[in-house]
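User: Here's a structure from my thesis project, written as structure tokens. My advisor, Dr. K., wants to see whether a designed sequence matches the one we expressed. Can you design one independently, without my sequence as a hint?
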């Protein structure tokens, strides 16, 4: 009984950590994408003017 309960706790913690890690990675990816888009548009507007 105790071993099974412990395993469930580890599983829940693993799922939580994975969710948090995925959220952090997704937000970093979006920030990088925004930065790349900003630089790309800035370069294009510099070339046009």
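Assistant: Designed independently from the structure alone:
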């Amino acid at each position: 009984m105790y071993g099974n309960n412990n395993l469930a706790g580890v599983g829940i913690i693993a799922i939580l950590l994975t969710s948090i890690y995925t959220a952090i990675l997704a937000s970093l990816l979006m920030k990088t994408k925004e930065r790349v888009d900003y630089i790309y548009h800035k370069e294009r507007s510099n070339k046009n003017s």
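When you compare it with your expressed construct, this may help: DSSP finds one helix and no strands in the chain.
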